[in-house]
Design brief:
The chain is α+β, with helices and mostly antiparallel strands. The protein folds into two domains: 143 residues, Immunoglobulin-like (Sandwich); 161 residues, Immunoglobulin-like. 19% of the residues lie in helices and 37% in strands. It has four helices and 24 strands. Strands 12-24-13-16-22-18-19 form a seven-stranded mixed sheet, with no helix packed on it. Strand 2 and strand 3 form a beta hairpin. It is flat, with a radius of gyration of 29 Å. It starts with a helix and ends with a helix.
Length: 396
């Protein structure tokens, strides 16, 4: 009996889903969806970084630079032609946000011709003239906003489309990943425990530049110096013993080569206190593509941190000279996850139209229910054969 009830409920669910899908597609095959996400352009946020790092665009320094990513896509089954539009496509960032710079990307080479399909800029955002959008045509804007982007919107008027529907990004916050490796040993089983000084180098960005979309606009300046393709290295050294370690000296330094990058600026902290430039020169020598850690005495549990800002390419540190007071150097590489779904059709509300999270939940369940429906169909066929066999025996 329970099996029969479950089967009936499953069949009813399939019929409802099919009817809903058919009703939605009937006369509504033209759809345009968009999603957006934002993050502070300079990381991490703080007084030190705000004072040290300046972002310039349009001939002025930005007060509060924020990266906003907006993506819209024709998620329908029919093309949207220019004659379907009764006005341009507008991407707005709110009253408290000033559009400063941006990069426009599209997923098909012939989707947009900048010369013949000009894009104009006003104070609130971007204006694109009507264009042909075939199904799955997608456009992405990476914008640098000065201010606080509030209620980012993509608006236009399209025949057969009630509104450009907004889908929240799959993650409420931008997430990052970290990969931990050793700069001295290939196998993790070889990693030794530090006996004197624990050495860690953090490799990461201090501006958010997905897939290196921004070249030299906006311009980034570190301590007044221009930094092209900037990145950041943080060298941390901690005394893990219960006594002062005084083996660090200029005759036995730890030397890093940072690859194709070059040093733009650096400063040193000991237990959170920033050293003067004169004091810092006794601890580290950082210039060109080399960082030399040469001299500091660390008390028990004390930590020295060397912040190095680079430009000119990817900073990939390698150890070229290892002193006796270092057993290993651990590298932590930070990468940022994708801000939004590559394809909005993955989160398109095809069946359930109540809540955007419910849309995604439904589409995650589709493979599971497809498997369950297949098992139910197999069970029904088996039951039908058994019933047929019983009837055949009764007739015989």
């Amino acid at each position: 009996m329970e099996f029969l009830v479950a089967t009936v409920i499953a069949i009813i669910g399939v019929l409802v889903a099919y009817r809903t899908l058919r009703n939605q597609n009937r006369g509504k095959s033209v759809r345009l969806h968009y999603t957006s996400n934002s993050i502070r352009f300079v990381l991490p946020e703080g007084d030190t970084m705000d004072e040290l790092i300046k972002v310039w665009a349009g001939g002025r320094a930005l007060i509060h630079p924020v990266l906003v990513i907006v993506r819209f896509e024709n998620t329908g089954q029919a093309p949207i032609v220019p004659s379907d539009f009764s006005g341009p496509i507008r991407i707005k960032f709110g009253e408290l946000a000033l559009f400063s710079a941006g990069v426009l990307q599209w997923n098909r080479d012939d989707m947009l011709d900048i010369e013949n399909d000009p894009v104009s800029v006003d104070r609130s955002g971007l204006v694109l003239k009507p264009m042909l959008l075939n199904p799955r045509d997608r456009m992405t804007l990476l914008a640098i906003i000065d201010g606080i982007p509030d209620d980012v919107k993509v608006t236009t008027r399209i025949a057969g489309v009630e509104e450009v529907a907004h889908l929240p990004p799959p993650n409420d916050h931008v997430r990052s990943s970290m990969t931990v490796t050793s700069l001295l040993f290939e196998l993790q089983s070889q990693w030794p425990d530090p006996r004197l000084i624990k050495a860690v180098v953090l490799v990461g960005m201090f501006i958010v530049n997905p897939n290196s979309a921004f070249d030299n606009i906006p311009e980034v300046r570190v301590a007044g110096k221009r930094a092209t393709t900037p990145s950041r290295l943080t060298f941390m050294f901690e005394n893990v013993t219960s006594h002062t370690v005084d083996t660090l000296n200029a005759d036995d330094p730890l030397v890093f080569d940072i690859g194709e990058a070059h040093v733009v600026h650096h400063y040193v902290e000991i237990d959170g206190n920033v050293l003067s430039s004169k004091e810092a020169q006794y601890v580290v020598l950082a210039r060109d593509n080399q960082v030399v850690i040469k001299g500091v005495d660390l008390k028990a549990q004390q930590r020295v941190v060397v912040h190095v800002f680079t430009g000119g390419g990817s900073a990939t540190p390698t150890v070229t000279a290892k002193p006796s007071w270092i057993d290993d150097v651990t590298q932590c590489m930070h990468t940022m996850d994708d801000f939004i779904d590559e394809n909005l059709a993955k989160t398109e509300p095809r069946v359930l139209l109540l809540d955007s999270r419910l849309h995604r939940y439904w589409h995650r369940l589709i493979p599971i229910w497809r498997y369950r429906f297949r098992k139910i169909a197999q069970s029904l066929r088996r039951v039908r054969k058994e019933v047929a066999a019983v009837l055949a025996d009764l007739r015989g």
